Amino acid sequence: MSNPLKPLRWYKKLATKKGRLEAGVFLVEGDRAITQIISNQPDEIMEILTIEEPPPAYQNYAVRLVTGSQFRSISSSMTPQGTMAVVRIPADIYSKHLPANAGNKILLLEDIQDPGNAGTLIRTAAAFDFSGVIMTENCADPLSPKCVQATAGTILSLWLRRNRNYLQLAEILRKDKYTLIAAELNGTDGPSVLHGRSKLLLALGNEAAGLSKTLLDMADYRLRITTVREKAESLNVAACGAICMYLTTEDK
Questions:
Q1: CA dist., res. 105 & res. 33, Å (int)
Q2: What percent of the chain has pLDDT over 90?
Q3: N or C end of the chain: which has fewer CB within 10 A?
Q4: Using 50, 70 and 90 to split pLDDT, how confident is the model at 4?
Q5: Residue 204 phi, psi (nearest 5)
Q6: pTM as predicted
Q7: Predicted local confidence at residue 57, as pLDDT
C-alpha cells in the first residue's frame, strides 16, 4: 500500500500533546505492542515505520522503511525497538460523557502524574477485564510516549476518558448502582469489599497526596491494603492498583 511520505519532523511532533491533537494520531512502538493493537483495533493503525522488512502481520498496512538514525530521531524510547505504528486517537478520549455501555468494572485515576504508573495501571486494568479508565486532567497524558510504552499495546483494549468532569462521571456511575471503592493509606475497610462486585468503580490517587477529600467523601468504602509500615510506609500506586484489581476477580 502506498502512502504519501511525511517529513520526519511530523512524526517528532507526535511526542507532544499539541502535535498529537493536531494530527489526530499517536505513536505505538515495538512489535508486541503493535500486534496487541492489531488484535483489538486493527483499523486504527494508519501507518507503520520500520528499519527492516516488515513481517506478514503488517502486510495490510502502509509501511515506511526508515534508517536506524531516522528511527532514533523519532523514537522517545531509550532503547528504540525498530518498529512503530501511527495510530488514530480514540474519538471520545476527551469526552465529558461516559460510553453508552460503560461495563462492569471501571478504574478512576485521580492526578496520577507519573506516565509509567498511569500506563502500567491502564495495562493492569485491561488484564483484569476492566472496561474503562477515567482520568483527571492532572493525570499523565495516556497518549504520551512513556505512558503508551507502559501500556504495552493495551491502550485501545478499553475505553478512556480524561477530563475535568471526573467527579460528575463518578456520581453518574454511583447513581447507576456502581460501588465506589477508594484505595486509601488509612482506610478502614479490608480487601473483602472488592469481592464479587457486579458494578465497581475503583479509585486510586496521586502518588504523594493520595485521593482528594471530595472523592473520599463520595466513596462507599475506603480500602486499606495492609503493609508492614516499619519496613515500607506505603506501596507504589501501580502496585497497589494491581493488588486491588486482582482482588476484584476473587469470589465473595
A1: 24
A2: 83
A3: C
A4: low
A5: -125, 145
A6: 0.93
A7: 87
Cell of 23: 494530527
Instruction: Specify whether the CB–CB gap between 185 and 208 falls below 8 A.
Output: no
As given in the structure block, the three cell numbers for residue 27 are: 505513536
Q: Average pLDDT for residues 188-203, to the nearest whole number?
A: 93
Amino acid at 230: E
Q: Enter the C-alpha cell of residue 126.
A: 485491561
Torsion of CA 226, 169, 98, 239, to 10 degrees: -20
Rounded distance, CA 187 to CA 2, Å?
57
Whether residue 223 contacts residue 184, with contact meaning beta carbons closer than 8 Å, is answered with: yes
Q: Which residues contact 186 (CB under 8 A, 6 or more apart)?
A: 222, 224
**Are 142 and 119 contacting, i.e. CB atoms less than 8 angstroms apart?**
yes
* Distance from C-alpha of 42 to C-alpha of 38, rounded to nearest angstrom: 4
Per residue in 153-194, pLDDT (tens digit) is 999 999 999 999 999 999 999 999 999 999 998 899 999 999
CA distance 2 to 107: 40
Contact between 162 and 139 under an 8 Å Cβ cutoff? The reply is yes
